[in-house]
Amino acid sequence: MKQRGLIVIDLQNEYLPTGKLPLSGIEAAVANAVRILADAREQGIPVFHIRHEFSGSEAPFFVPGTDGVNIMPAVAPAENEPVIVKNHVNSFRETDLKQRLDAQGVEEVVIIGAMSHMCVDAGVRAAADMGYPVTVLHDACATLDLTYGGVTAPAAQVHAAMMAAFEFGYASVISTDDYLARA
Question: Which CDD domains does the record cross-reference, listed alphabetically (predicted)?
Fold first, then answer.
């Protein structure tokens, strides 16, 4: 069996209803993330937390030094779990995530977090492009409504489109329950 690693992308306070960028379904995604983290810790699966922070104080959200950039308490890193701070959408860009995965002997990754259509998307595609088999736990990810050209796509449709794209060419997409039920 390949060594698995869990990547928890941007489960930060900014995405809660009290944050500057609240996501649809974030509470349910975090509840599933709590279960996934507990399982990873119990099984000795390495966990890598990603925290998005913009480099300037003029950013509209994820402003350095604010509560919004903090990882949600429910999914706070354990003492031995690294927090990788990124300044871009892609968790691998200008970070040491790849080196940390390699140092832990990770051969396949499980990805959860936010936002499905941005940072989760970039992380999934980058990991797959680097040769990692990727599993996305769809109900441990969240996003928001998007508008383009006067058309608004509800969060559920944005999320479904992203999961379908992942499943088409980048990842296995399953539920938290199915993942936890695996032998």
Answer: nicotinamidase_related
